C-alpha cells in the first residue's frame, strides 16, 4: 500500500480502511473523517439555515456570480477576517471559492512553475501532496514536533528551503494534531519565512475552533512581515461542509503579491474555474452576522468535552499515547506503541483490523506522514464516541502482549 496511499487523499485512505468492515459486524463508528454534521448535536444553527432559505426566496441569486464572488459577501468576509488585525482587509483581497479545498487548489496552481517546491507540514493534510503531484510541484516536508506540542521545527525550514522554494503551508488550528499555535511561535514562523523569501499559505479552515487556553491567532496578523494567503471556509466552524463555500484571502499590506503577479494569476484562474453556488455566497453575510454566541459556545463546549474524553481514555491505555491534549480543530494524533502488540505490525494493519473487528474507522498515520500513528476525530456525538473508545480499548486488550 505504502506510497500510493499518499496520492489518495483522506477519502481514498478511509475507503481503504472501510473496505475491511465486516458486513455482519457492529454499527460503524466514524472516527476517521472530520464531518460532524451527520450528528444532531452538531447540526448547524437555525440562523444559518434561515440565511440560505432567505437567499433563495429573494429570487435574486439564481444566476451566475461574478468570478471573484458577490461583492457584498466578499466585503463581509474582509471585515470578519480583519477583526483584531493591525490593518484592514478590503473586499478586493477576498475571493470566494468552492470550500477551502478549491482555495487550496487555486493557491497551489498560481504558484506552480517549473522546478518549484513548497514546504508542507508533517503530519499534514494529504490533499496538498495529491494536488501538488498533479501540478508538478515538489513537496518538501518540515516536521511538527510532538515533544514540543507539535510546534513547527523552525531550523528544519532553513535546512530544506532553497531558491526554488516558493511557499510554506501552515495549518492552524492543526489538522491532524489538534493544536493551536501561539502568537510567539507564529511570529517566529513569519520571521523565518521572510528570511527565506517564502510566502505563507495559511490553512485556517478550523479558525476559531479552539477550546483550550490558547486563543486562535490568524497568520494574516503577521502579513506586514511576510505576505500570507489565508484559506478558509464555512465548512467546519458552521458545520456545513456540503454547502461548498470558502475563501482565499490575500493578506498583503505591502503589495508584494501584486508586484509578483500572484494576484493577477489568481484572477485569471478564477475566470476559468467553477464558482461556488451563488445562493450560498448570498447567504454568507447573514451566516457571519447572525450566528449567535450561543451556537459557538455550545459547539465549542461539546468539542471540548469530547476532546477531554478522547484524550483521557487513550492515555489510560498503555499501548496508545497522545503527546498533546487537543486544544482546537477536531482531531488528535495517537501513537501506537507497536512493539506492545502481538499480531499487529503497523498503523495500516491496526486500522484495517480495527475496522474489521470493531467497525471503528480511524485514519492511518502513514498517509499523513507518520508511520505507526493514527488520527482520531472526536467531533461526533459523545455517546458514540464513548462506544468507539470502549471498542478501541477492547481491541487493544485483545491484541496487546500480556505484561
Ligand atoms: C476540511 C479541510 C479542508 C477542506 O475544507 P472544505 O471547506 O470542506 O473544502 C481544507 N484543509 C483542511 C486542513 C481541512 O481539514
Search tags:
403 residues, alpha/beta, Aspartate Aminotransferase, domain 1, Aspartate Aminotransferase, domain 2, 2 domains, 4-stranded antiparallel β-sheet, 13 helices, 39% helix, globular, binds pyridoxal-5'-phosphate, PyrdxlP-dep_Trfase_small
TL;DR of this structure?
This protein has helices spanning 9-18, 46-57, 71-82, 99-111, 127-135, 154-160, 183-196, 256-259, 262-272, 278-290, 293-316, 347-358, 382-399; strands at 29-30, 94-97, 117-122, 138-145, 151-152, 165-171, 199-203, 228-233, 246-251, 320-321, 331-336, 360-361, 363-364, 373-377. The protein is an alpha/beta fold and 403 residues long. An 8-stranded mixed β-sheet has the order 2-9-8-7-6-3-4-5, with helices on both faces.
CATH superfamily annotation of the largest domain: Type I PLP-dependent aspartate aminotransferase-like (Major domain)
Q: Helical proportion?
A: 25-40%
Mean pLDDT: 95
Q: Give a count of the beta strands, DSSP E runs of length 2 or more.
A: 14
Number of domains: 2
**End-to-end span in angstroms?**
32 Å
Strand content: 15-25%
The profile of the biggest β sheet is:
8 strands, mixed
Give the ordered list of helices and strands: HEHHEHEHEEHEHEEEHHHHEEHEEEH
Strand order of the largest sheet: 2-9-8-7-6-3-4-5
Structural class by secondary-structure content = alpha/beta
What's the CATH architecture name of the largest domain? Answer: 3-Layer(aba) Sandwich
Global shape:
globular
**Unreliable runs, pLDDT <50, ≥5 residues?**
1-5
Bound small-molecule species: pyridoxal-5'-phosphate
**Tally of separate helices:** 13
CATH level 3 topology of the largest domain: Aspartate Aminotransferase, domain 2
Modified residues (N6-(pyridoxal phosphate)lysine): 236
Keywords: Pyridoxal phosphate
Cofactor: pyridoxal 5'-phosphate
Domain Aminotransferase class I/classII large: 27-392
